[in-house]
Amino acid sequence: MFSSGPGLAIDPTWVLGSCKGILIGRELKVEHEKSSRVNNVRETIQRCAMVVLELVAQIPLPLMLFGVASLLYVLYLFSSTPGCAKCPPGPRPLPLLGNLLHLDLTRFNICTHELSKKYGSVFTVHLGPKKVVIVTGYKAVKQVLLSPSEFQEKDMLVIFREMFHGQGVLFANGKSWKAMKHFCLGSLRNFGMGKAAGEEVIIKECNHFIEVLEKFKGEPFDVELLDASVSNIICTILFGDRFDDADPTLREMLAYLKQTIDLISSAEIQLHSVFPWLSWCGGLLLRNRSEALKNYRFCTEKMKVLVGQFKDTFSPQDCRGIVDDFLLQQLKESDQPSSYFSNGNLLGIIRDMFVAGTETTYISLVWGLILMAKYPDIQDRVQEELSQVIGHREPRLKDQKNLPYTNAVIHEIQRFGSPISMITRTTSFDVTFQGYLIEKGTKTLLSLESVLRDEDEWETPHSFNPGHFLDEKGCFTRRDALLNFSVGHRACPGESLAKMELFLFFTFLLQRFRFSPPPGVSQDALDLNPVACFIKKPSTHRLCARTSA
Ligand code: HEM
After folding, report:
1. In 10 A of CB 335, how many CB atoms?
2. CB contact set of 183 (below 8 Å; sequence gap of 6+)
3. What is the mean pLDDT of residues 397-403?
4. Where along the chain is heme bound (predicted)?
5. Beta strand pairing status for 542-547 and 513-516?
6. What is the distance in A from the centroid of ligand 1 to the CA of 465?
7. Mean pLDDT throughout 165-179?
């Protein structure tokens, strides 16, 4: 995915830094050695690369930049407009670099918005030599998502293929994905979603987080503290029990998850996805890639230990959670050589549920608290409604229908602060879409952000406005264009669970606390611009939570 990641723009300081690193003789590391023949070829390429880089490094920088710019300009002038007449339109690409120099990928959503104004809701850009079709706006994106067969497969960053090998759900395709998605939906229903037991698990975590916040006595706290409580919900559903907040396994997994998301957002990894052959230069040029792969291997080892403990204590009569449910299925299909219930898929399911079930919900909640601190009038109205309808007792899911304003605010938080701004697909065959030809295997980026900010669907798309979800009588009203969980065959299987979590956490916290910016920071100064990242995260990190009167 190329969401609002900080981009493919090549930072010259980074390139020079890497060259310098090479010249001072950093040791060559060649990853994933498969055969000595391949190694020899790689080593030769690396040696050649070093020689070339040494030569290039001797050229004065201004001269080198002038040379590269002139070469690209000449190539641009002599290149014919690529693509076919029937393909979606788009800016004219440079040879090799495509539109990388036109696109500010640290503001990819804004770029996409601007390009869609010029070229329409379906257009082509070239990320390096790779042609990518971008689809924007509610109508076009929904049409792709609900297409029966045209855009079936998910397209993935190269690093995800290297890490996950098509196991699990999130980064899988084909028959294995289908079997695992079916399992996830069924097992989530059994152990979490739409059940009283699921509600109890969430309420336990809400009360736990309230205790954590009370210890700050109104002093500023780091919103990242929320991640352990949110994560413990999916951990309980997976493993049958929560981790202590300070448990080293939980802390390490959360830290590695955050670090890996930042690494994957880096220019290096985005660049690698455009030019996969860069990995032939080993760990030298792609240190973030090596670091992300190392993190992933570390987490996989941790998960293997956990799974081992589960296998040792597994009893088919007493399923503790999704992991046991998987082991039971594995046992039932043990005589079927083609079964998808493999150990690899078990690790994949745990990883996907942990990642998707933690980061997205936690970020949505953080957006919610920041928005309440920024707009105290809206916070007042929510607290007034909670006090009238619920009073001092604990909120419950059944209260939702009696809290129209609070419900509208929670839905608007999901629209305004949706963590996933882009999803990817690829065409399974040549497709005619909205009159354009999209050739087989074309990477297709669907901008969910453009749906959630579609000017034809939302009255004030760029402002936080709970009125989007209220009718003229003040009753809560659903909006079809709220596609933050996606739709169609790849839609989020955790949608119901996430909605339960958002409602309960939000009402528990707002009933108990008044959220405000830290001392010295005004409401106006609270920054609503997301940090450029693979996942759309807010940049503010500290807030105050004072006990409500
Ligand atoms: C506010 C919270 C959440 C949001 C906004 C969200 C959103 C999404 C989106 C947009 C997708 C991609 C769908 C696509 O490619 O079309 C997705 C996939 C997925 N989500 Fe969520 N999600 C959330 C919470 C959760 C939770 C709590 C879980 C786990 C229980 C979860 C598990 C998954 C999985 C396993 C997939 C992959 C589905 C597939 O590829 O078929 N998500 N989610």
Report:
1. 7
2. 325, 326, 329, 341, 349
3. 96
4. 492
5. antiparallel
6. 25
7. 92
Going from the Cα of 356 to the center of ligand 1, the distance in angstroms, rounded, reads: 6
d(CA 402, CA 424): 38
Residue of 115, 354, 69, 86 lying closest to 235 (CA atoms): 354
The alpha carbon of 491 and the centre of ligand 1 are apart by a number of angstroms equal to 7
Q: 356 CB less than 6 Å from ligand 1?
A: yes
- Residue 399 pLDDT more than 90? yes
Q: What is the ipTM of this complex?
A: 0.99
- 447 CB under 6 A from ligand 1? no
For the residues 274-282, what does the mean pLDDT come to? Answer: 66
Q: Is 483 in the pocket of ligand 1 (CB under 6 A)?
A: no
Whole-number mean pLDDT of the chain?
84
23 touches 57 (CB < 8 A): yes
- Binding region for heme: 492
Which atom of ligand 1 has the smallest separation from the CA of 181? 41
Banded pLDDT at 52 (limits 50, 70, 90): low
Asked if residue 155 has its Cβ within 6 Å of ligand 1, the reply is no
Tokens 């790779």 correspond to what residue?
130
| Rounded Cα–Cα distance for residues 357 and 411 (Å) | 18
Q: Write out pLDDT tens, residues 291-302.
A: 888 888 888 888
359 lines ligand 1 (CB under 6 A): no
% residues pLDDT > 70 (the chain): 81
Question: Using a 6 Å cutoff on CB, does residue 364 contact ligand 1?
Answer: yes
Count of CA atoms in the C-beta half-sphere (13 A) of 285: 21
Q: What is the dihedral of CA 338, 341, 347, 353, to 10 degrees?
A: 130
